[in-house]
Structure formats: structure tokens, C-alpha cells
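Q: Could you fold this chain for me?
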Amino acid sequence: QVQLLESGGGSVEVGGSLTLSCTASGLTFGDYTIAWFRQAPGKEREGVLCLNRGGGIASYLDSVTGRFTISRDNAKDTLYLQMNALKSEDTAMYYCAAVQARWCSSQIADYSYWGQGTQVTVSP
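A: Sure. Below is the predicted structure, expressed as C-alpha cells.
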């Protein structure tokens, strides 16, 4: 059974850093395009960054450009999100999602598998 499991969330002060991880099982990790989404209280889930199976990156939020970095380690079946210079507006539940497709997408309906999320709280 395919499973994605996020970890690394927590509470951090404004300006701090966190690294989120998403570990996959039940699939061949290198065959999948994988993305990070987030959902803040009272808002809809939105795409953050995507890393396709060929190594290409797509960014969907101007507000995180230059602060967030997506990467993957296929040997460890793990996706990462390095978050620096965190702002209170980054507070959200962060989800990883995967699809066996060549290209990235910001649409939640395009992804086949989802993790349960990890909470990131940035204190103002």
C-alpha cells in the first residue's frame, strides 16, 4: 500500500528555519513527481513547490521564493522542504503529494497520493 508520511513540523519563531521531510513507501520514488502543499486556517490548500521526476522544479507562491527549497533523495525515498526566514504567514499544515507523471502541477486533483500533513507554526 502506498503511504506518504510527513515529519519535521513544529513551532518556530519568525525568521527561523525548519526542514520538512516526506518519506514514501509502497512506490518507486524515482518514478514520481512530488510536491508540497499547505493549508492555513480558514484557507484552501495551495501548492507551494513541486519537483518532477526529471529534476525540474516549479514554484507556485511568490511569497516563498528565495526562502523555501525543495529537494529529493530517491535512495532514501524522501522529499524535503527547507524553509528559511519563516514568517507568521507561513503557518499552515504542510502536505506532500505524489503522482506518477512527468510534469509538475499545482492542482490537488492531479495528485494520486497524499500524506496526512505536518503542522508548522511560526510565532509572530
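A (continued): The chain is about 0% helix and 50% strand.
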